[in-house]
């Protein structure tokens, strides 16, 4: 295709970005130290505007969900995207830029057929499973890959279920990721009933047995249900069918009761409110939602956002029973009362899905299977996602499961790599996205930058003089600027030095 001349466009300085239009094509120009790069302007994961991202060591970081791409190649380095960026041929001629508007597409790898005798088993076809399959093929593995999962909807973008899908803003078919079969994976809809390392094989609920040379176990989590009368009447939210079931009864004007103050619970409260339901959130402890994770000030701001939009909270209230369209509640030892509810949803967290016999080491605390930072649980057996307790720490989030899937795949091939990524998760409430970089189970102080109550801020969680985690809202570009520096534990003054001005 003929080049398009962009007159006077060659004015970018190193590290600067500029969105340009070449005919009908929008392109993002990025000036590296010695190279001008042209890439697609939106992240392939969720369409985030990459001009708001950050450039760190020839890496482009997505501002919404911290996907990372290599420059100038556009190759994917960190999920949640599953493929890299389209790039464009571009050159400078004087003060002008000449650009070929035909993209050099960065396609997913083509399907593979087994060409050697090795079999790799993926127990779980979710975020870790699909990422492992793609990574194995990208790294040249042409053997047999078998993925076993009882849920036919997997792999899906689970993060969207309690956010956009439940709010009716995203059709469920849009949450589906690329099929495993596209990568030459044998997909079996079944559960593993017994997993053995000696001999290396898995027995399935359909009666089959799969022998393997290497395996990744990433079965995810199962939603918890409180042990109370009528608990089976309440919904949980984990799979596409759960969303369908809830939406079948979630008509505008009805009343929904959310039992539990987990991230899923509060995201569901936001989504159902936006669908026109009245929502009451019931928590059985004395603290505000998210106070233990984010601190009291930010917890107050998030609860205030919900209350402003009509959500009601019953804190320090125990649910005693669910019967018909009514809940029996008791607050602080007071008399029991009834709360009418057209639908009830549990949002009390998840437990690691380990409902099969196995000979792997269990974590001493927090549940899950114990692994080191290579994710190895036994010879040629790796564990990732919600069930992986990495050196004693277990973090439940979809993006981390993707990171684990990529790392485990390389180590199944013998790379012996260690996890060096930065955990990141996001939660979404009434149009406000909160992004959390790092991990801080405890902190000495929180340093705020911006206006917490206006929900435009960075919060730095300091432990032993260094930043263990950063929480942001309304500061997407700043969060992207810190994603790469957070690989190192830095004092706050040094970390702040990595904040980049918008170009």
Structure notes:
This protein is an alpha/beta fold and 503 residues long. It has four domains: 4-99, 3-layer Sandwich (Rieske Iron-sulfur Protein), CATH 2.102.10; 119-222 and 351-412, FAD/NAD(P)-binding domain (3-Layer(bba) Sandwich), CATH 3.50.50; 231-348, FAD/NAD(P)-binding domain (3-Layer(bba) Sandwich), CATH 3.50.50; 431-496, Enolase-like, domain 1 (2-Layer Sandwich), CATH 3.30.390.30. The chain is built from nine helices and 37 strands. It has a six-stranded mixed β-sheet, covered by helices on one side. The protein has a five-stranded antiparallel β-sheet with strand order 33-34-37-36-35. A hairpin with a 4-residue loop joins strand 35 (445-451) and strand 36. The longest helix has 15 residues, at 398-412. The radius of gyration is 24 Å and the shape is globular.
Please give a handful of descriptors for the protein shown.
503 residues, alpha/beta, Rieske Iron-sulfur Protein, FAD/NAD(P)-binding domain, 4 domains, six-stranded mixed sheet, five-stranded antiparallel sheet, 9 helices, 37 strands, globular
């Amino acid at each position: 295709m003929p080049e398009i001349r962009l007159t006077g466009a060659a004015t970018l300085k190193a590290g600067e970005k500029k969105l340009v239009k070449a005919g009908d094509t929008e392109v993002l120009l990025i000036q590296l130290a010695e190279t001008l790069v042209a890439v697609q302007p939106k992240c392939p994961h969720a369409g985030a505007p990459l001009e708001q991202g950050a450039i760190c060591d020839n890496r482009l970081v997505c501002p919404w969900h911290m996907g990372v791409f290599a420059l100038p190649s556009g190759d994917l380095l960190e999920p949640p995207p599953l493929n890299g960026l389209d790039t464009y041929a571009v050159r400078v001629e004087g003060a002008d830029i000449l650009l070929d508007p035909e993209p050099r597409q960065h396609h997913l790898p083509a399907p593979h057929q087994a060409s050697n005798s090795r079999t790799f088993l993926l127990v779980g076809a979710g975020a870790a499973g699909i990422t492992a399959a793609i990574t194995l093929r990208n790294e040249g593995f042409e053997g047999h890959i078998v993925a076993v999962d009882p849920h036919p909807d997997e792999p899906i973008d689970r993060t969207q279920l309690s956010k956009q899908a439940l709010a009716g803003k995203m059709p469920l078919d849009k949450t589906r990721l690329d099929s495993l079969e596209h990568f030459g994976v044998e997909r079996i809809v079944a559960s593993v009933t017994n997993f053995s390392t000696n001999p290396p094989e898995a027995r399935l609920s359909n009666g089959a047995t799969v022998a393997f040379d290497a395996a990744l176990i990433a079965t995810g989590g199962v939603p918890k249900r409180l042990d109370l009368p009528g608990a089976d009447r309440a919904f949980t939210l984990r799979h596409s069918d759960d969303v369908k079931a809830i939406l079948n009864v979630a008509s505008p004007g009805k009343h929904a009761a959310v039992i539990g103050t987990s991230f899923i619970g509060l995201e569901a409260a936001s989504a159902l409110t936006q669908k026109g339901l009245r929502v009451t959130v019931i928590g059985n402890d004395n603290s505000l939602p998210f106070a233990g994770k984010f601190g009291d000030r930010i917890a107050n701001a998030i609860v205030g956002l919900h209350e402003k939009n009509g959500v009601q909270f019953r804190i320090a209230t125990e649910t005693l029973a669910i019967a018909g369209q009514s809940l029996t509640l008791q607050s602080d030892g007071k008399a029991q009362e009834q709360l009418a509810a057209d639908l009830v949803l549990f949002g009390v967290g998840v437990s690691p899905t380990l409902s099969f016999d196995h000979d792997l080491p269990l974590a001493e605390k927090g549940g899950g299977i114990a692994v080191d930072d290579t994710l190895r649980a036994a010879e040629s057996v790796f564990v990732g996602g919600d069930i992986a307790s990495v050196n004693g720490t277990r973090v439940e989030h979809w993006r981390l499961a993707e990171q684990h899937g990529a790392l485990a795949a390389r180590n199944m091939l013998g790379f012996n790599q260690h996890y060096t990524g930065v955990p990141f998760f996001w939660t979404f409430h009434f149009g406000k996205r909160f992004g959390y970089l790092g991990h801080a189970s405890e902190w000495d102080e929180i340093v705020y930058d911006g206006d917490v109550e206006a929900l435009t801020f960075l919060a730095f969680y300091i432990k032993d003089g260094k930043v263990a985690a950063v929480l942001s809202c309304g500061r997407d570009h700043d969060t992207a600027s810190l994603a790469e520096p957070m690989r190192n534990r830095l004092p706050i003054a040094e970390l702040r030095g990595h904040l980049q001005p918008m170009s």
